[in-house]
């Protein structure tokens, strides 16, 4: 099974003015594509080439001998999930079942968004901020570098990429500004709701 670069769920210019086509061209066309290419080379002569992306991640986590495979596989998975976490003309208050779940588990949207933004701001260096579910309860988590919740038994619902290549061309070192724009203008609540099932 060859791991492929999935199509973006929108045109590269569709998230403007919030995320530029130039950023998406580099982020998707260079970074994401490189993870796909590297992963295929790394698994070419192994039994892992027959596995799904999720299974490759689960079989290589916490193993020093397969760290390169894990990092590239997890980055392919994380980025694919991130693209789906955004949609043009979205963001703002949640809708559907996730809205009630956020109120129940976080005591309201403001508390939820404060915790999620804080996870993104306090992730030292490169990584991700996530809304996940474990044992039917919503949680906020952050992961470093390529790490991903699916490697640790959590069900991801939403992610925001806080590697610098996700925002630096548009926001320079203003990670907080990027996160505000992500939450206010880009979050795809329809996708989040689909992950609750």
TrEMBL record:
Xref: SUPFAM superfamilies: Fe,Mn superoxide dismutase (SOD), C-terminal domain, Fe,Mn superoxide dismutase (SOD), N-terminal domain
> What superkingdom does the record give?
Bacteria
Q: Does the keyword Metal-binding apply?
A: yes
Where do the Manganese/iron superoxide dismutase C-terminal domain residues begin and end?
94-194
Q: Which reaction does it catalyse?
A: 2 superoxide + 2 H(+) = H2O2 + O2
**Sorted alphabetically, which PROSITE patterns does this protein's record hold?**
SOD_MN
* Keywords noted in UniProt: Iron, Metal-binding, Oxidoreductase
List GO molecular-function terms, semicolon-separated.
metal ion binding; superoxide dismutase activity
Which residues are noted in the entry as Mn(2+)-binding?
27, 79, 161, 165
Keyword Hydrolase among record annotations: no
**Enzyme nomenclature, EC number:** 1.15.1.1
Q: What sort of enzyme, by top EC class, is this?
A: oxidoreductase
Q: Which family does it belong to?
A: Belongs to the iron/manganese superoxide dismutase family.
What the entry lists under PANTHER family is as follows:
SUPEROXIDE DISMUTASE, SUPEROXIDE DISMUTASE [FE] 2, CHLOROPLASTIC
Briefly, what is this protein's role? Destroys radicals which are normally produced within the cells and which are toxic to biological systems.
Record's protein name: Superoxide dismutase
